[in-house]
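Quick question, first post here. What does this chain look like in 3D?
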Amino acid sequence: MPGHRLAAAVPEAAVERGGALKGNKRIGILAERTLSVAQGDEPEALREGRITCVLDFEHATYAERFRDFGKLDEHIFDAFPAGRDVFLASYAAACPLPDDWEQRVALGQVLHALNMHVYFRRWSPQWAPQYARQVKEWLTRNT
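> Answer (accepted):
Ran it through. Tokens below.
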């Protein structure tokens, strides 16, 4: 990545600090710049010099920020509801919630359900009806 603006902004020592990441500057830059949220010297993406997570940008989009709550609620907070309040408090501390955030989250949930319904009708039809029910319930509440 020579000449890349982000690569030039990160000191070589910061990239090499990850140990296992020495040969991969792109992952090192992500670990040091994007994932440096841990308390202490080592970014959360690294533990004892080893990669602990990988970010998959395959489905990354520029979209309404509350759209992701559909997936978060289904895959995380439905199973661990107490985590939602903690997550929201941290999220609001970093980026204040607007007055209409709950309506926007609800819209994100129905968009997720619509997307999953279409996806599963094609690939795993037995799971599609649950998403159709979620859409119908949302329409009943919001019309």
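The first strand starts at residue 46 and ends at 47.
The helical segments are 5-9, 12-16, 25-34, 69-77, 82-94, 101-123, 128-142.
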